[in-house]
Amino acid sequence: MHRLRADCPWDAEQTHRSLVPYLVEETFEVVEALETVAGDTEAGDVQLREELGDLLFQVYFHAEIAAERGAFDLDDVAAGIADKLVRRHPHVFAGEDVPDDLLDLWERRKAVEKQRSSALDGIPDMSALSRAAKVVGRARSHRVDVELDATPISADELGPALLALVARAQASGIDAEQATRDALRALEARVVAAERG
């Protein structure tokens, strides 16, 4: 990475911001490999290994850029995640009992560490559908009372229903992603209002 930053004109001019599209793309390529080929065949495992390497390269790249300005380096990144995992797993590293709800404990510890006051704090920008899943999940886990239809549905029903809605939106000249974002912003406003009581 040092050599690339020094000797490759393209690598040398990159910034954290300019690399964002590549980080997103590499992340989705790992997801695709996990969902389609990983574990099925030796070739699938080779593909997953390659995609994970491409994603790891992004971590190296960002750490190198930060190290150049003296902010942190790859060792700091590794130490930070190791410390966080130890801190958030007292049932593994500190002899505490395994809690009944591990995910709830994880969210509560994270909220305390990061001084979060809202169920929505810390949810990053992502696709509208992914963000919606996060917002709904957080509202539910934080027991924020917002009325949503939570009738169970099977994956076999959900996928085709979503595709049909996207097709209907396109036929109507509606950007499905934007419409979902608009509805999501309204839901987030209801979550915040409910939290304020």
Summarize this structure briefly.
The protein is an all-alpha fold and 197 residues long.
Shape summary: globular
The tally of strands reads: 0
Count of helical regions:
10
How many whole angstroms does the radius of gyration measure?
Answer: 21 Å
- Beta-strand level of the residues, as a percent range? under 5%
Terminal-residue CA separation: 51 Å
Secondary structure: helix percent: 55-70%
Mean residue pLDDT: 90
Low-confidence stretches: none
Write the H/E string, N to C.
HHHHHHHHHH
Largest sheet descriptor: none
Structural class: mainly alpha
Structure description:
This protein has 197 residues and is an all-alpha fold. 70% of the residues lie in helices and 0% in strands. α3 (20-36) runs antiparallel to α4 (42-68) and α8 runs parallel beside α10 (176-196). The longest helix has 27 residues, at 42-68. The chain is globular. The chain starts with a helix and ends with a helix.
Features:
single chain; 197 residues; globular; mainly alpha; 10 helices; 70% helix
Strands, helices and their partners?
Blueprint: H1 2-7, H2 9-13, H3 20-36, H4 42-68, H5 74-87, H6 90-93, H7 102-113, H8 128-141, H9 155-171, H10 176-196
Helix pairs in contact: 3-4, 8-10
